Amino acid sequence: MKNLSGSNLPPTVGDSNPESDSVVSNDFSTTFGALILGLVFLLGVPGNFFIVWSILARIRRRSVTAILILNLAFADGFLMFLTIFFIIYLAKQTWVFGAAMCKGMFYLCNSNMYASIFLITLMSVHRLVAVVFPRKVSLIASKKIARRVIVVMWVLVMLIAIPSVVFRDVRIDKDERNKTRVVCAPNHTLPRHVRFQYALETVAGFILPYAIIITCYVLILRRLRQTKFKRRIRSEKLILAIVVMFGLFWLPYHVINMIQVAAEWYPDNSPTREMLEHISKSSRAVTSALAFISSCANPVLYTFAGKSYIKKNGLAFMAKLFEGITSDQGGNKKSRVLGKDTLDTSNIQANSSASQSGQNGI
């Protein structure tokens, strides 16, 4: 049998292979995963590209926060657009797009996964500098420096996602009813390949960045509690909601990664190994779909944070939310942090009252 690109497909994988079952081998898991991805597509694509449009078309002077949010929305929106291919894959329980698309789609998916978490981490670091070191924010967190850091980040993302190309291929598989189908699945030939890829994803794509995020917001919240800003409680709750939501959606995916890594340390035919492999195989599709939700959650949170602008500004409410700057009545421009609705920290001033603001994105 040949794939769509004309190359010979590997033969059906036997039960001795630890990855003999693909993520589409379980009917319930694939059906539930397809439903989640369908909802994510409907919310995430228009939501994130509305953010991109708001920043590009409505904001003339883009702050560092706006630039980071623009990149995050683009990465999330592009990832959400890719879900249509995975929805078809889960619904049909067979890969119909060929070997090249198999490698390419999962590479893009992994790249955007890393880009999203790295951008969220950069936002956290920038907010930390703006709140704790407001006098230095213009020097060490300027737009010029931010753009360079973002370019370096995208290069790093493209490099660190390479294993998803190396360890992914099209093969013949059999479902629960012994029916032959084509799947796009991992092609690890050695246990250490499994341990390397999934450990890299979890450490570089979750543990380290999330540790930085948590550290940043612990320091930020400690700083906020030192002030007497009357709206800081609302800001703190929104900050914590963003961080906690990201962690909850991605944690199951990385737990499954670690379960799959742990299974490789046990000998073949071990009851513990069989149990861990069963858990990872039956849960991979669902946890992957849940992870996608995090990319459509930010537009929902932004809308909630800027709800007071909707009636007044209409479609420009999102841009108004990100600008976070208003002009005073005396004609002098003054940076004012909208503690109730805005979490933009690019214009935080050196005095303590401005450093108490909340930010709607991490």
Automatic annotation (TrEMBL):
Region Disordered: start-end pairs: 1-21
Transmembrane spans: 32-56, 68-91, 111-133, 145-167, 198-220, 240-263, 283-305
Keyword check for Membrane: yes
Compartment annotation: Cell membrane
Membrane topology: Multi-pass membrane protein
Protein's name in the database: Leukotriene B4 receptor 1-like
Family statement: Belongs to the chemokine-like receptor (CMKLR) family.
Record-level Gene Ontology MF annotations: complement receptor activity; leukotriene receptor activity
Keyword Nucleotide-binding among UniProt keywords: no
Annotated source species: Solea senegalensis
InterPro entries for the chain: Formyl_rcpt-rel (IPR000826), GPCR_Rhodpsn (IPR000276), GPCR_Rhodpsn_7TM (IPR017452)
Biological process according to GO: inflammatory response; phospholipase C-activating G protein-coupled receptor signaling pathway; positive regulation of cytosolic calcium ion concentration
Sequence ranges assigned to domain G-protein coupled receptors family 1 profile in this UniProt record: 47-302
Any GO CC annotation of this UniProt entry: plasma membrane
UniProt keyword list: Cell membrane, G-protein coupled receptor, Glycoprotein, Membrane, Phosphoprotein, Receptor, Transducer, Transmembrane, Transmembrane helix
